[in-house]
Amino acid sequence: MLELYISAVVFGLGISGILFLVSIGISIGFGLMRIVNMEQMVYYTFGAYLTFALVSATGSFVLGLICGTAAAAVAGFIVETQLLRKVYGKELMFTMVVTFSVFLIGIGIVQYVFGLASKPVGMPFHTIVHMLGAKIPLYRLMVFVIGMLVYVFINLMLNKTIAGKAIRAGIENPDQVRGLGINLGRIFTVTFVIASGLAGFGGALNSPLVGVTPYMGFDMLLFAFITVILGGLGSIKGTLVSALILGQVISVGGTIYAPLAFVGPFMVMFIVILFKPTGLYGVRGRAFGFEE
Fold first, then answer.
1. Which of 173, 219, 227, 273 lies 20 to 30 A from 117 at CA?
2. Which of 155, 142, 146, 144 is nearest to 238 (CA)?
3. Residue 242 and residue 265 in contact, taking contact as beta carbons nearer than 8 Å
4. Are 30 and 229 in contact (CB under 8 A)?
């Protein structure tokens, strides 16, 4: 029994790593650009499918990972420069409808190119590590470690670089940043491309664990929104903490009682917002993205 729960905890860490990678774009997108990037999960899907295509063609998971991330970043650049720039400053509901439409169009493209059937992606390696008697796939541990490294990288970028400080200033006071002559539009683009690439990176990493289907983004979109709402929209630290919590709720909770893997995250979110409507690390006045 102990081995079962140890395995569940480790599996939960892997889920947390993926949740953080695919949710950070939604969190940063609202924090900086004040839009809800519902199309982020199409980049997640693109990353997964391109990984599948390249692994099938070449057998190289690393090549699929790199190209899937790059393709997601390029798609994000096109969407931001050609569409989202026209909706900045619009009402939140309007931007949600626009970005969700992009998501549906992207899913339609995936269906047209790859069909409706689920596609398996082979594991890059099958190494097993032993932990207190439990057999743990090393790949799942690596997914968690990669997620934590990305968090460290983002923090260093925001706190130690000029561009990162400009992004932080843009989040806190965009009008003042414009007054200093900083090109906030360029900051938006760079930030959006990084967020889109991370979503594609998360999809590529997750593809061997769940396989790829055209609708894989729908389920992940739901959990990603729970993650950012629980952590607080615009908070990177909150996104990480909520991803860690939800990963365990999904994995350990599902081990205890299978339906908890799906309803558990909603229960946690409901309890937290009862006592802290802005989420764990959200800013008062912007609960769920709406001004008080």
1. 227
2. 155
3. no
4. no
| DSSP-based three-state secondary structure for 290 | coil
Largest CA distance in the chain: 61
Coil/strand/helix, residue 3:
helix
Distance CA 199, CA 186 (A): 20
The structure's pTM equals: 0.87
Extract the tokens encoding 74. Answer: 């390029």
Query: What are the pLDDT digits (tens) for 114-143?
Result: 988 888 888 888 888 887 777 888 999 999
Burial grade of 160 (CB within 10 A; 0-12, 13-18, 19 or more):
exposed
Q: Name the band, by pLDDT with cuts 50, 70 and 90, for residue 5.
A: confident
- Per-residue pLDDT tens over the stretch 178-198: 666 667 777 778 888 988 999
**Nearest by Cα to 244 from 54, 90, 14:** 14
